[in-house]
Fold this protein.
Amino acid sequence: MVDYALNQAIAQHHERNQRWGFTWAIWTAILWGAWYVPGTALWYEHPYVDIAADNQSLRLAATAVMTWVHAITVLLFLLLWNGVLGKVRDYGRTMVRFRKISKWYALASLCGGPMAIFGSYMAMGFVGPVFAAITSLFYPVVGAAIATLWYKEKISRRAAIGMAIIIMGGVVIYGPGLFGEMDITHNNAWLGYLGGIMSAIGWGAEGAVAARAMDVTDPDVGIQCRFSFEVLFWGVLILPVLALFTDLPIVSLIVSTVTESKAMLWIVLAAACHAYCYTAFYKSFSLIGVGRGETVGNLYAVFALIFIAAFTLQLPQWYFLVGLVLTVLGSLVMFAEPAESVAQLRNIGPVEEGA
Amino acid sequence: MKLHQKGFLLVEISKVRSIWDSELIAKALKEYGLTGSYWVNSLCVALDELAAAGLIVRVGSKLDDGKQLAPGRLLFNWRLSEFGRSRMRDTGLLNYP
């Protein structure tokens, strides 16, 4: 009787953890999808709306400025989050251990910030937004491969099938748009393809690299460390270099962004989505692993179209429904995985060794 | 400066052959001057994350008879895994302080 009650309690414990892990991953997808609304609207406000579409260098400089101001705002939202949770002191205790621990968050911020975001904008600018969206969909494959090879994260057959179905669903949603966009005769198209590869590798590697530090630190604290480093990379290194060694108007872009109330409103809304999207992202890694967390996060493709349709009243094409069915099916396949197999994410031995 | 909370939990687990979470949580609450069920649950989540990552393994479990954290609550006995020891070495926690 006692054994039965104990076994029941253990099974419920594993199920609860699995459910929380997938819940965090789905919140990642919802907030990531919601982020596209303010993230896109920002380009329609001053000073960004004044930049010509063919002025690539100025657009990239504007992207860098926008990303930096956005990262600072994200950091403030994360400070609020950790303040409410009582984890600000733990943030300080984690940040100071740079040589052995927080350096991994610094590397993760390089992968997810300058490499992935910059790569994504290159893909958008030199090939097109649909191509950029599709290449980003493949980042969980990179993340799962790195996590498996580097620190033996377990990817079960069922999880791998679920991943494949979700990615296929994303490709169905965006794929048909590619036919009108791909133009291999374009001289600079290779820069776009390079950017697409950078975004898939950058975001995929970010999860795997961050998980190395998260093994021994709190995920809420970890995401604040990661954005602290991103703010520093843009603000202390990249933007000053651009301002000093190019004739791009970095300072005036910064001033006109922070003094333009409509631009700042969209940045604040985008940052709120992004801050808690990333928090949910990192929390899911700790409970269900990098591969599963990133793949379920890929459902952003569905939520982005739903949010954009809700705000612009432009309904998606019919094939969106096929993609939606596939992504939901893939998620269910992954969620149906036994909770015990998700209770331990690495190949290091049995979960319970006996009393 | 004190060690971050997950680091503290790992260091305490590494000092003994195995330890019950109720005992470990009591040590952490004392170390950081914390009280209340929020922090007990928060530390339990941290232990679950360490277990999911394979740094610690469960070597025993029982239901609380009401003398530890709360009546009927599931309690675990934890031990550091070899992978956890290796990760502690990588992150400078094994020889802390």
Summary: Chain A has 15 helices and no strands.
